[in-house]
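Question (not urgent): is this output format expected?
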Amino acid sequence: MLLVRRAAALALLLSLLAATSARAAAVDLALVLAVDVSESVDAEEYELQHEGIARAFESAPLIAAINGGANGAIEVLVLEWSDRDKQVVTVDWTRVSDKASATAFATKVRASRRSSNGLTAIGDALFAAQAAFLNLPEPAGRRVVDLSGDGMANIGPPPQQVRDVLVAAGVTINGLAILKTEPWLDGYYDQYVVGGPGGFLVQVDDFPSFAAAIQQKLLAEIAATRPGSRAAALRQMQ
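Got this back:
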């Protein structure tokens, strides 16, 4: 009952925010990068994710994609998540509109430090992303959660229930499934995590492939398209 009430209250607030955003969008996209830092992610794998995000924002294609939007700008936030009480904003909402602001965001990402290493609470991570949208500094035309991880939820509310609350409020959830330890994870993400208008899934076999995949995924999210096949995209980034 508490979960239902919490979800309903946040859904109402997000619906009001969505109505405001649709009327007067100042940025094309508000993007929450929800990064798995649970105990299955070791220090080297964490750094591969960390550095992959930073490098993506330093790339010319990503800046060009941002500039191609109606407002030529996005708001982006990094949320690290693991256990039920371990969802931490490591880089707060940052407006990115050009090379200088993209580089500044990448610098913030590199300056942040790992926040936790608990269990895998995907539902709580989605709730935290939902709450982050309530603190947007300016209205956005679209709201997207980019959730990456290497395992199924093993604690907390069922991800599909929280996903449905966000989707009902107009949020899109895209997944990046890292199949290193759970080769079936793409099917789980596709069924229980991904949702909303244009929602899609990208999967990679291991953490070294993360950097190419996150750039592919970000380009699609910024342009409001769907990425091509995994193999083709990874060849393009090499």
